[in-house]
Amino acid sequence: MTPRALNRLSLFNVVALALGLVFLYLPIVILVIYSFNASRLVTVWGGWSLRWYTEFFHDRAMLDAAWMSFRVAATSATIATLLGTLAAMALSRGERFAGRSLFSGMLYAPLVMPEVITGLSLLLLFVAVNAGRGFWTVTIAHTTLTLCFVAVVVQSRLGVLDRSLEEAALIVPAIAAGWMLAFTLSLDDLVIASFTTGPGSATLPIRIYSEVRLGVKPEINAICTLAIALIAAVIVIASLVSKLSNSRGESAAPL
Fold first, then answer.
1. For residue 193, what are the CA distances in angstroms to 73, 122, 169, 182?
2. Which member of 1, 13, 61, 77 has the lowest number of beta carbons within 10 Å of its beta carbon?
3. 10 lies in a domain?
4. Residue 246 pLDDT > 70, yes or no?
């Protein structure tokens, strides 16, 4: 391939990447900017202001929904991390046992299962056992959703470690990364939570969705901006933890 062809290919890649980033992140940038809009109309710029952030911190219903989301996310992420780590160790370190393929398939099924089907299945289960829908039903549902993601992260870490090494300290970063991933997935879930929640236990995404159906308020932009900032911070921390895990794994690997 000639240098000119390489340059054209490189230019095409750069343009494609730029267009992809604009397509993905321009709406988010606009949302963040308009969260500081002083005007009540979301499409009319009225100057810079923190008015809608103040409105959010005085909105009791929104604050209750946010607190519910944090409680559910923290609890489900912790349970999912415990169970997912045990499942990953069973698959990575356990001898081949009867039903291993079935166990693995069932463990990773939520990765490819549509959330509508998962949510409806869990709803039917809770109705069948006459479980009152609320905090714990949403927590169980989110644990079911996020457990497989934790197992993937921890199993990938275990796969590159020598079995003769002491594993406990080496997989801690992977476990932490799995917990953060599970926390983020739970925090922004709408579909499954809408099936399994009940009166008085609405999560923040459900509350935001119900508000948006009546029209987008500037306060929603402020709430979404805070959620974006929180999730971005969790992702950055998870990325740093994952890199730390990789570096420790490489340094501990036998020469």
1. 11, 10, 34, 14
2. 1
3. no
4. no
